Amino acid sequence: MSAGLVMFDEEFRQISAICDRLTRDASAKVVFLVDKNGQLIAASGQAQQLDTTSLASLTAGNVAAMGGLAKLIGEKEFPSQFHEGEHESLHMSIVAGRVVLVVVFDAKSSLGLVRLRVKKAGEELAKVFDGLAKKQAAPGAASPFAEITDDDIDNLFSE
After folding, report:
1. CB of 101 within 8 A of CB of 82?
2. 39 burial class (0-12, 13-18, 19+ CB within 10 angstroms)?
């Protein structure tokens, strides 16, 4: 996500629903949404079996490295990547220039199906992130932390 972009509960629910639907529609094992700084935003599917922190940071590193390679050959970026393994494959797609959508799938699915479903999910996610950016840029937009008082913080850290 862009620096300073705050996730609100409403948008988080929308993002989670999109990831859940993509997991089902693409017959994927796992779907992750990661920001370009390597922070996991959402996960769906069999995520509990994976080290999500490492996956998120390695995804961001891979996207950054591929971005460097793209620039070397005169491209702006590689908006999607596919890695095929013996048993599982990985599809990564940059969404709205802000986040990376990662789909892990096996032989129960196909690259064609994943690409088709990722395209639709990517468009939906782009709308959510565009709306979130507009929401925060609106004049008078309150911080989601505005209602937290000093007493709330003291109570949180008191014994």
Report:
1. no
2. middle
Identify whether the C-beta of residue 85 lies closer than 8 Å to the C-beta of residue 119.
no
Angle between helices 111-137 and 9-25 (to 10 degrees): 170
For the segment 78-104, what is each residue's pLDDT rounded down to a tens digit? 999 999 999 999 999 999 888 999 999
**For the whole model, what pTM was predicted?**
0.81
In single-letter form, the type of residue at position 129 comes to F
The neighbour count for residue 27, using CB atoms within 10 Å, is 15
**For the chain, what percent of residues have pLDDT higher than 90?**
69
Asked whether 22 and 121 are in contact (CB, 8 A), the reply is: yes
pLDDT in tens, 118-135: 999 999 999 999 988 888
Q: What is the DSSP string of 40-53?
A: EEEEEESGGGS-HH
DSSP string, 72-89: HTT-S--SEEEEE-SS-E
